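[Automated response] Your request has been received and processed.

Submitted sequence:
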Amino acid sequence: MFHGAIDWDAAKPVRDAAIPDTLFERGLYWASGRGGLVDLVAAHKWFNLAALKGRTDAVQMRREVAEMMSGVEIAAAQREARAWIATH
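Generated structure:
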């Protein structure tokens, strides 16, 4: 249980501070196969979202993943990214 004090004036919303890093980590998870399965569509989606949220290194990672994907797979990843944005 948290027993400290929160400085509400200095606090940042989670979406402003942690989301780009979390999205990037999800991209790495799927690109590397950490869970036992490489999913390039999922990796592209998460790197795309991380790039949109300001993670500049996600742009290069998305590009590298895209080089291993078909046009159909890239389109699927982009649709999934748009769907995620629409719901979050």
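Summary generated for your ticket: The chain is about 65% helix and 0% strand. The first helix runs from residue 14 to 17.
If you did not submit this request, please reply to this message.
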